[in-house]
Write a structure and sequence with these properties.
Layout: E1 16-20, H1 27-44, E2 48-51, H2 70-84, E3 88-91, H3 95-102, E4 107-110, H4 118-126, E5 130-134, H5 144-153, E6 159-163, E7 166-167, E8 173-174, H6 178-184, E9 190-193, E10 199-200, E11 209-210, H7 215-225, E12 229-235, E13 249-250, H8 254-269
Parallel strand pairs: 1-2, 1-12, 2-3, 3-4, 4-5, 5-6, 6-9, 9-12, 12-13
Antiparallel strand pairs: 7-8, 10-11
Helix pairs in contact: 1-2, 3-4, 4-5, 7-8
Length: 271
């Protein structure tokens, strides 16, 4: 499991959960989401890490929402995390982001498109924080051992790997569950991103689409394969979310989904 003191319920045998809104829009959205996820995680005894991007650097259009300001967003993440006693994960995009974000969060996440950026991986490693590397849409699971090794060689063995689908044509993604097995062979905790895996990128509108109705299907398959963790983005009202609303899970559906996944995990644990 993950050696973070604030991560509760690690003795439960459940998967751990990285969940929250795509990007920090306001403290109200983060607080509402964290409060509900905390309630559910305590009820179901799921180890929970609150997720939120303090900025979104990778956007299709120049006028797409990128954030409310780096420091402001990071302070909101830290404040809400302390309020509910939750560890925090956020994305970084540049080497200078690593030291900045590390002052506020517990896990630094490397976006999929940047998983081969050596300087970024090394900068994240040198903070001493956990580093969650998302597998590039252009890579197979075996290739991710090299990304993990970069962090380890920089003196940090606290590495996690996340599957988020592979590019399928120009406007779709597909999850190859063999990648989860291959990444598990690295010895790192393996996570399945059940929302970004359902994106439909590169739409003509410049706004990413998605298939959120398949979130439960993707998640159940991941639990059956034996993933260590689940990553999902959720929002009180995805229809008005400023980023990735098309593939986020409505917050009101989180308890039902996670209840089913916990039951499935309990079955898998007996096999």
């Amino acid at each position: 499991m993950i050696d973070i003191s604030k991560l509760k319920h690690q003795e439960s045998g459940n998967f751990f959960l990285l969940a929250g809104p795509c990007v920090i829009e306001s403290e109200e959205v983060v607080d509402t989401t964290a409060k509900e996820l905390k309630r559910i995680s305590d009820l179901l005894r799921i180890p929970l890490v609150l997720k939120g991007s303090f900025k979104k650097a990778n956007r299709s259009r120049v006028n797409s929402f990128t954030g409310i300001g780096d420091i402001k967003a990071l302070e909101i993440l830290k404040s809400v995390g302390e309020r509910y006693d939750l560890p925090i994960v956020t994305d970084i995009h540049e080497t200078t982001d690593a030291q900045l974000a590390a002052q506020y969060v517990d896990i630094l996440q490397i976006p999929a498109f940047l998983c081969r950026q050596t300087d970024l991986l090394v900068a994240a490693a040198k903070t001493g924080k956990y580093v969650n590397i998302k597998k590039g849409q252009f890579l197979n699971g075996e290739s991710m051992r090299f990304a993990a090794q970069k962090v380890i060689d920089a003196g940090n063995d606290k590495v996690m790997l996340t599957e988020r689908g592979n590019s399928f044509g120009y406007q779709d993604l597909v999850v190859d569950y063999r990648n989860l097995v291959a990444m598990r062979d690295t010895g790192c905790p393996v996570i399945l991103d059940i929302t970004h895996s359902l994106q439909q990128p590169n739409q003509s509108s410049g706004v990413t689409g998605g298939n959120p109705e398949l979130i439960e299907t993707i998640a159940k398959a991941g639990i059956a394969v034996g993933v260590d963790g689940i990553f999902m983005e959720t929002h009180p009202n995805p229809a008005v979310a400023k980023s990735d609303g098309a593939n986020m899970l409505p917050l009101e559906k989180a308890e039902q989904l996670l209840t089913r996944l916990v039951k499935l995990r309990q079955t898998v644990n007996t096999l």
